[in-house]
Structure formats: structure tokens, C-alpha cells
Amino acid sequence: MNQAQISSDTLDEETARAEVYGLLSALFYAAPSAELHASLKVAVTETPAPGAVLQDSWSALIAAARTYSQEDIALEYNALFGGMGKPEVYLYGSHYLSGFLNEKPLAALRTDIAELGLGRDDTTMSETEDHIAYVCEIMRYLIAGDDVAVANLSRQREFFSRHVQSWVSMMCEAVINHPKARFYRELSAFTQVFVAVEAQGFDMLV
Questions:
Q1: What are the record keywords, sorted (predicted)?
Q2: CA distances from 131 to 93, 100, 120, 127, 174 (A)
Q3: Total number of domains in the chain
Q4: Residue 39 forms part of a structural domain
Q5: Between 55-67 and 183-203, two packed helices, what is the crossing angle to 10 degrees?
Q6: 92 DSSP β-pair partners
Q7: Is residue 2 part of a domain?
Q8: Is residue 163 part of a domain?
Q9: Which of 9, 31, 84, 110 is the most buried (most CB within 10 A)?
């Protein structure tokens, strides 16, 4: 998975949305690389996607990136999401939708992914498809992809409703309330607000 890049250039709304999903995918898949962490530290504090409601949480995320070193964030990531056996916080949709891993929500997601003509590349993505990084990457593709039969607002809304809105906020709450969360608390707060903004935008299309 390629690490998302932060740009201070003025972006159109669709490009901005795609870049946010790409950033979330990268940061939830692994602790930031040195390059990504450096980019975050010098990122403008204006929100990368339209919507003043995102401003405070985005500014807090950038402040956290400037406060904590790459090593600090890597240790936090492993403490929250890694380790042997059960992690402190799960990053998988099936856990929040059914209480178990590898359950019916994952099967439903795989069916929808197949209908989009997509699939998991085992060489670049070791996690199951219901990992937050994977669903964010699919949303990024549905926004920025070249195939208009797949990359369109209708497909975005359907996938978002079923596989993002249905559980990501619960995951964010679990991170926000965890005593070991610092950088990832701010990332989760930003994610939660971003998902709410996306939901409002899709509701306006109905």
C-alpha cells in the first residue's frame, strides 16, 4: 500500500475526499513512515477537504503529528492494534457489526467488492477486507478511479452506507476512549467527523 501524500495545493472537492481516504488508509494500516510523518508535520492546518466542521479535528491531528515522534507513534500503533493475540482495539468491521471476526459482514463485503470488479492483493494487503484501511482504500478508488461504471457517486454511496458508516464511528470511539491513545485518538476524532460529513453529503443526494 502506498503511503498517502499530503499536499498544500488547492484541491477540488473530489480529489480532496480521495486524498483523505488515502491518508486514513495509510495511517490505520501501519504507523506512518518517516516520509509521511514529515509531511504531516509540515502540512497546512487548513482542512484538506471542504467543510469548516473538519477544521478543529484536522488541526488537532496535525498538532499531534508535530508533538509525537515517528517512533512514539509506531509504539502507540503497536500498543493499540498490534501484538500477539487479541489487540487492544480491533480495526475490523466484522468485530463491530457481529462481535466476531471473519463473520457474515466480511462475506457480504467480499461479495460487494467482487461485484465492483475488485479484489484483495495478498502481496500488498495482509489484512482481511473488512480492515479499516481496506475499506478506506476502496472508497478512495470509487472517488478517484478512471472506470466511471464503478467510480461514481451511486457506488460510493452504496459502499459507504454498508461498509463504512455502519461501523467506523464505533471503532473510532473505541480508540478515542482508550487510555493509550494519543496520536491515534486525534486521528480517530478526525475520522469520525469526516465520516459524519460524508454521510451528510450522501444524504443530500437522495
A1: Chaperone
A2: 6, 13, 11, 6, 15
A3: 1
A4: yes
A5: 160
A6: 131
A7: no
A8: yes
A9: 31
